[in-house]
C-alpha cells in the first residue's frame, strides 16, 4: 500500500473495550493490534468462552440447541447482559445455537416486542438489554427447564 492510503483496524475486545489502530503499513498495524491484545490479556485476563459459559448453567448451555432464536436471545441477555446484534450472533454460535444475522435484523423487534430495549451509545453499534417484562419471561423459560435463578 502506498503511504497515501491510511488503514484503520477496529477490534471489539468486549462490550466495554474497543481497540482502534491506524497506520499506513498493514503489517505494522496488525503487529500493533497483536501486541496490544497480548498485553491486555496479561494485565487483565479477558473472559474466555469457557469462563462466560460458567455464568450460564451447563444444563442450560446443553439445551440451547433446542430453543427458538427468541428464547436463545432472551437467555443470552439474561445471563450475559447488554449485547449488540453482532455479539448475540457470535455468542450464540459459540454456544451451539447460532441466531442468524438475518433473523436478528428482521425479527428481533417483532418477536421480542416489549421484552428488549435498545441502548444507543454515541459510538459503536446499538446494544440490546432485557426489560423487566423480558426478565420475567426469561425466568419463566428457565423454570420450564428447572433452572430458576
TL;DR of this structure?
This protein has helices at 26-43, 49-55, 58-63, 69-80, 85-94, 101-111, 132-144; strands at 7-14, 17-23, 83-84, 116-119, 127-130. It is an alpha+beta fold and 149 residues long.
Characterise this structure.
The protein is of the alpha+beta class. The protein has two domains: 7-43; 49-144, Winged helix-like DNA-binding domain superfamily/Winged helix DNA-binding domain (Arc Repressor Mutant, subunit A). Helix content is 52%, strand content 17%. It has seven helices and five strands; from the N terminus they run E-E-H-H-H-H-E-H-H-E-E-H. It has helices at 26-43, 49-55, 58-63, 69-80, 85-94, 101-111, 132-144, and strands at residues 7-14, 17-23, 83-84, 116-119, 127-130. The strands form two sheets. It has a three-stranded antiparallel sheet. Strand 4 and strand 5 form a beta hairpin. Helix 4 (69-80) crosses helix 7. It is elongated. The N and C termini lie far apart (54 Å). Residues 44-54 have low confidence and may be disordered.
Task: Describe this protein with a few key phrases.
single chain; 149 residues; alpha+beta; Arc Repressor Mutant, subunit A; 2 domains; three-stranded antiparallel beta sheet; two-stranded antiparallel sheet; 5 strands; 52% helix
Q: Which structural class matches the secondary elements? A: alpha+beta
What is the share of helical residues?
40-55%
CATH topology of the largest domain: Arc Repressor Mutant, subunit A
The number of distinct structural domains comes to: 2
CATH-derived architecture of the largest domain: Orthogonal Bundle
The 3D shape can be described as elongated
Residue stretches low in confidence (pLDDT < 50, at least 5 long) are: 44-54
Output the number of helix runs: 7
Q: How much strand content do the residues show?
A: 15-25%
Mean pLDDT, rounded to whole units? 82
Biggest beta sheet attributes: 3 strands, antiparallel
User: Strand tally, please?
Assistant: 5
How do the strands of the widest beta sheet line up side by side?
3-5-4
Terminal Cα separation, in Å?
Answer: 54 Å
How much is the radius of gyration in Å? 18 Å
> What is the CATH C-level name of the largest domain?
Mainly Alpha
What is the CATH homologous superfamily assignment of the largest domain?
Winged helix-like DNA-binding domain superfamily/Winged helix DNA-binding domain
Order of SSEs: EEHHHHEHHEEH
Amino acid at each position: 500500500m502506498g503511504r497515501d492510503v491510511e488503514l484503520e483496524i477496529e477490534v471489539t475486545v468486549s462490550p466495554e473495550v474497543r481497540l482502534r489502530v491506524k497506520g499506513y503499513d498493514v503489517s505494522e498495524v496488525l503487529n500493533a493490534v497483536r501486541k496490544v491484545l497480548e498485553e491486555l490479556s496479561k494485565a487483565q485476563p479477558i473472559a474466555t468462552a469457557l469462563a462466560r459459559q460458567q455464568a450460564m448453567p451447563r444444563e442450560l448451555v446443553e439445551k440451547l440447541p433446542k430453543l427458538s432464536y427468541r428464547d436463545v436471545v432472551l437467555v443470552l441477555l439474561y445471563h450475559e447482559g447488554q449485547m449488540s446484534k453482532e455479539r448475540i450472533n457470535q455468542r450464540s454460535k459459540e454456544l451451539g445455537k447460532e441466531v442468524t444475522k438475518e433473523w436478528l435484523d428482521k425479527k428481533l423487534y417483532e418477536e421480542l416486542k416489549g421484552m428488549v430495549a435498545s441502548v444507543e451509545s454515541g459510538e459503536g453499534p446499538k446494544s440490546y438489554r432485557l426489560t423487566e417484562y423480558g426478565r420475567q419471561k426469561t425466568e419463566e423459560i428457565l423454570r420450564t427447564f428447572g433452572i430458576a435463578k
